Amino acid sequence: MSVDAVLSLTLVHCWLAFVVLQLPSPPCGSEMTPEDAYQRATAVFVGRVVTVTTRYTPRTRRSGHRPYHEVQLAVETSWKLVDRQEVTISTTNTLQGTCGSFIAGETYLVYADALNDTLFVSPGSRTNRLADAGEDLRVLGEARLPLRSGEFRTYKVILYGALVCVALALLLWIFLYRLNKKPLRPA
């Protein structure tokens, strides 16, 4: 192959790579309709990113530490579950500018799921910058949940449920203990 042919092929490849990088990426979660995303999500809200903290999963036998982001948001409006002005979510997508990643100071429409009392955003959700979420906002309509001050925490339901179960078990134990302490009546 001649030097001119190699140079031509190299230039064509560079040009194609440049053109492909310039193509707009599809919107986050574009394979889902806003209605489907709302039904699938555990929480739907608009929030401004306050902090993004990189954390690491514990080391396992199969893999080492994996990074994830813990994102604190100031909630502006909410349609589903979140009724507080602050919420913390997690995302495994740590690459900036991709679906499921967050930038401090930006405002997002968040479709979050829950797992083990943690709200998280998957890369396949329709979570997107608010400026790019016009279609979703039209479908969602007016926000449905009033916001209260404080941070949203999902574990309170489990904590209170556990306390009630312990209290009921204690009452049952006291009842059975007293029942066994009564003297037997002679026949």
What is this structure's SSE topology?
Blueprint: H1 3-22, H2 34-40, E1 43-56, E2 67-80, E3 84-91, E4 107-115, E5 118-121, E6 128-129, H3 134-140, E7 148-151, H4 155-181
Parallel strand pairs: 3-5, 3-7
Antiparallel strand pairs: 1-2, 1-4, 2-3, 4-5, 4-6
What do these coordinates show?
The protein is of the alpha+beta class. Helix content is 33%, strand content 29%. The chain is built from four helices and seven strands, in the order H-H-E-E-E-E-E-E-H-E-H. The chain has helices at residues 3-22, 34-40, 134-140, 155-181; strands at 43-56, 67-80, 84-91, 107-115, 118-121, 128-129, 148-151. It has a five-stranded mixed β-barrel. Strand 2 (67-80) and strand 3 (84-91) form a beta hairpin. The chain is elongated and about 115 Å long. It starts with a helix and ends in a 6-residue tail after the last helix.
Which features characterize this protein?
alpha+beta; 187 residues; 29% strand
Structural class: alpha+beta
Mean pLDDT: 80
Q: Measured on Cα atoms, how large is the radius of gyration?
A: 26 Å
> Roughly what fraction of the amino acids lie in strands?
25-35%
> SSE order, as H and E?
HHEEEEEEHEH
Largest sheet: 5 strands, mixed, barrel
